[in-house]
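Entry:
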Amino acid sequence: MPHLPMLALRYLAWLVGLRVVYAILVQVAGLPNAMATAVILAAAPLADIGYQAARKATHPLGYRDWSLIWGMCLGIFAGVQIILPAMFIAPMRALLADPAGLQQTLLVLVSTGGMMALFLWIGRRVSARGGR
């Protein structure tokens, strides 16, 4: 099993870095700031995480290992994008208290989880082909 804290730190760096760069592009270039874009920005780094996990593994990773990596990254996403803002930003707490807002937040979380699984699989497949 690869070193999980290093994979977590790598994902966190990707998540924050991509979000900051995209926020700048939204302000400068006028790109749309849609929820679908946030889902892809959160999920795309898992291609790299899957690649790194497969390359640094000392044994073939099973479903348990991959689900552990996926769950760790989904937890980091939920912590950074949902839990921390809810702790410090009152409108986010109000959004989560409203059933419609909570439903939208859960929809984004489930969508992100599905996309994360897809990108993690892509990273694993790229590693299996020798990085080509």
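Helices lie at 4-29, 35-43, 45-56, 63-88, 90-97, 99-128.
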